[in-house]
From TrEMBL:
This is NAD/NADP-dependent glucose 1-dehydrogenase. It comes from the Bacteria. Coiled coil: none annotated. Gene3D superfamilies: NAD(P)-binding Rossmann-like Domain (3.40.50.720). InterPro entries: NAD(P)-bd_dom_sf, Sc_DH/Rdtase_CS, SDR_fam. It comes from Neokomagataea tanensis NBRC 106556.
Length: 266
């Protein structure tokens, strides 16, 4: 589906973490389709180059490759500095990279819990810190959008690290939004429900499981990555200049207590 707007981000420079596939890739493409120059972060350079090769060309300069592990301080400092140099600036930061590991909570391995927290929480804090520092030093009204999850508020048994990390993201967003609101920096989040991306292939490719997942969603279908990109770009655009510290749930109604659609309690 083509981008609904044209040139909404002409001249803007955008860094997207975790842009080698899924929601990050769709978001980077949407920004590029609307005129932005994009820096693509991920850990594997070849995958990022393959994504970049499919993007519409930037009007000025090339889209940047920002290889590195977003949970590692030295990587983040280097890749953000390189991206800013390559693009000649930074206007929008999308903290998208994230993952989850399943385990009964009584057996959760410390390294698994800490690994998820490192990417989903530290991997948000570090690029936010670097971007904000750059914006304050250069008088830029930057925008941050963090990719959270409906599990920011819906408990997720067997995914303790993931639930904890997305809960933490809410307070990162609200705290940074308040701390920098008076200095022209906006910070918001999107919280997707069940989205068709590579990490969900186990149920996407199984018709029974796909039906089961869909049955729990009030709109009776999972979302597409481009529908999350729609929300992320809205929060980055001139359409949302008075919005900060908010989480926009993009979930087909998943957070509306679907069980109560038909009255069963009175
Ligand atoms: P995905 O696995 O398809 O993509 C995740 C991306 O993050 C990949 O490019 C991966 O390489 C990158 N990444 C992982 N660890 C990294 C690290 N340490 N450094 C740099 N990059 C790293 O996942 P997705 O479904 O597109 O999810 C993206 C975001 O959306 C995540 O934060 C996830 O929690 C959130 N989310 C997804 C869904 C869903 O149903 N797919 C639902 C709610 C929230």
């Amino acid at each position: 589906m083509p981008a609904p707007y044209k040139d909404r981000f002409a001249g803007k420079k955008v860094l997207v973490t975790g842009a080698s596939q899924g929601i990050g890739e769709a978001t980077a493409r949407r920004f590029a389709e609307e005129g932005a120059q994009v820096a693509l972060n991920g850990r594997k350079e070849d995958k990022l180059i393959a994504v970049r090769d499919k993007l519409p060309k930037a009007a000025v300069g090339d889209h940047a490759i920002a290889t590195g592990d977003i949970s590692k301080e030295a990587d983040v400092k280097r890749l953000m500095q390189e991206s800013i140099e390559t693009m000649g600036g930074l206007d929008v930061l999308v903290c998208n990279a994230g993952y989850q590991i399943a385990s009964p909570s009584e057996d959760i391995k410390l390294e698994d819990f800490e690994g998820v927290m490192a990417v989903n929480v530290t991997g948000v804090m570090l690029p936010c810190r670097e971007a904000i520092k750059y914006w304050l030093e250069n008088g830029i009204n930057g925008v941050i959008i963090v990719n959270s999850s409906v599990h920011q508020i819906i408990p997720k048994p067997h995914y303790l690290g993931y639930s904890a990390s997305k809960g933490a993201v809410d307070n990162i967003v609200r705290t940074l939004a308040l701390e920098y609101a008076s200095r022209g920096i906006r910070v918001n989040a999107v919280a997707p429900g069940a989205i068709v991306t590579p990490i969900n292939m186990s149920w996407i490719n199984d018709p029974e499981q796909y039906k089961n997942v869909s049955s729990h969603i009030p709109m009776k279908r999972p979302g597409e990555s481009r529908e999350i990109a729609d929300a992320i770009t809205f929060l980055a655009a001139e359409d949302s200049t008075y919005i900060t510290g908010q989480t926009l749930f993009v979930d087909g109604g998943l957070t509306l207590f679907g069980d109560f659609e038909k009255n069963w309690s009175s």
